[in-house]
Amino acid sequence: MIVFITSLVLVLAVAAEPPQKSHPRPELLIEVEGIAKLQPSPVIIDARPRGGYDAGHIPGAVWVDLEAWSKAFADNPDKTEWTKRIGDLGIDTDTRVIVYDNGVKDAARI
């Protein structure tokens, strides 16, 4: 597995082979084994369908219903509401976050 990292959100993508040297920002990639070494520990969000999470996930990962979040955001993008929703996951402006799914697109939406 490979992690794409931004300053706040880390997006994890599953890959069958190591990252190619042609990645535009190779410094933003991390192997899954490296996640355990991150200090302070990040909040890990699993954005896969619930069945995938239930079948197995990164230890400590919390499941987020991407479709429900998408609908909720479309219905009410209020900053206060979303600050609470994200804060309830233990995330604030100083928290390192990893979001992963079966690809990249859905994790990037979170």
Structural write-up:
The protein contains five helices and six strands; from the N terminus they run βββαβαβααβα. It has one domain: Oxidized Rhodanese, domain 1 (3-Layer(aba) Sandwich). The chain has a six-stranded mixed beta sheet with strand order 3-1-2-6-4-5. It has helices at residues 32-35, 50-55, 66-75, 79-87, 105-109, and strands at residues 2-5, 9-13, 29-31, 43-46, 62-63, 97-100. It is of the alpha/beta class and 110 residues long.
What are the main properties of this structure?
110 residues; Oxidized Rhodanese, domain 1; disordered N terminus; six-stranded mixed beta sheet
User: How many discrete structural domains?
Assistant: 1
The CATH class is Alpha Beta
Following the backbone from N to C, one meets helices and strands in this order, namely EEEHEHEHHEH
Indicate the multimeric state: single chain
Shape: globular
- Sequence stretches where pLDDT stays below 50 over 5 or more residues: 1-17
Task: Please sum up the structure shown.
By secondary structure, the chain is of the alpha/beta class. It has helices spanning 32-35, 50-55, 66-75, 79-87, 105-109; strands at 2-5, 9-13, 29-31, 43-46, 62-63, 97-100.
